[in-house]
Amino acid sequence: MRFEVTRVLDSIERRLCTDPGAARAIVDLAPIVRQVELDGGRPAHLLRLGLVIDALGTHLGEPGAKVYVVVDRALITDLELTSNEKMVLRRWADDGLVEALPEVDDRLLELSAYTGLPVVSRDDFARFAGRHPWAAGAPFLIPVPGVGGAALMTRPGAAPTMPRPTLDPATQAVLGRYWRCPEPGCVLYGTPGPAQPPPRVRSGRAVCPRHGVPMHDGGPRQQATSVTIWIRGEDRGRFPVASGAPVVVGRSPEGPGGIRLGELLDDEAVHWVSRSHVRLELLDGALVVTDTSTNGTTVHTRSGPDAVPETITLHRGQQRRLGDWDVVELHEGVQLCRADRRPDASGADDAPVMAEAPTMAIRLPGSAADRRG
């Protein structure tokens, strides 16, 4: 059973990120871990995050949706969690897969205001009404018991769409820059880049949410879109495409900044994918693909996750402006698409993360031995 629990935690891990461009919601972890009515099990259980992630995929109609998780650091030492759960949670925080804070405070609302992402939480946030009046009518999502797991319910009386609060000029200036944390080894703000999450803003200054210290200016933030590499249905990494900085993708592109796929390809794909196969660039906020290959590139255009795709073939020198759900295919099974989308409506990462969870692992109260790990 422990092996199955570990596999579920691994599945959950693949849905975690602190890249706002790839996440589909912000999750308030601690209350969910303690929400016993979701499964009737132990007082605290990390697998409940999996129930909520699956519920989000169902709610959005996007299986495989990723989440930006914010957690109070005290949960990492919570005595109600098993030693393995605490170890996994600590590793997620150390690897920058979740944002672990001394105090969550209004960080959830801050992230939502800056990114436009909804918050998944049981909190009504009434205590922050003065600082974040817009949140009262925001369509945040509440986890509730559902058939065979959890479900998400939009807050009663909420607006139909996420409001975008007006930010003061000082905050806008902070969000328009990259930042470096002075603390050695800070996983969220060590190296500036398009996937860097927005900092906390206090009195017009950027503050590291993890360490609580003012940060150093890392230069102007470029508009960018994250792209995911999919090989045979598996997520094999992502890269940013920033405004004014085209990215060449291929088997082994020359020059700095190219995305090398050679070691990820099987024997057939190695002979089909060109050394420099496509060029991606961000023009007027949209991704544009240009074919630079010998064998051509296929673009699957879709209007949504369940839409039947239309296929367009590009030849050397031809380009196309990509829609939000379009997929670029260099060879069968070698695909590129926006990081917050999947190349199709199925796949390994689309399976519910709780599909292999042993029922007994959640529903039975943990024994003393279980809590020791």
Automatic annotation (TrEMBL):
The keyword Phosphoprotein is assigned to this record: yes
Keyword check for Signal: no
Record InterPro entries: FHA_dom, SMAD_FHA_dom_sf
Keyword terms of this UniProt record: Phosphoprotein
Domain FHA: 247-304
Protein name: FHA domain-containing protein
Organism per entry: Actinocatenispora thailandica
Lineage: Bacteria, Bacillati, Actinomycetota, Actinomycetes, Micromonosporales
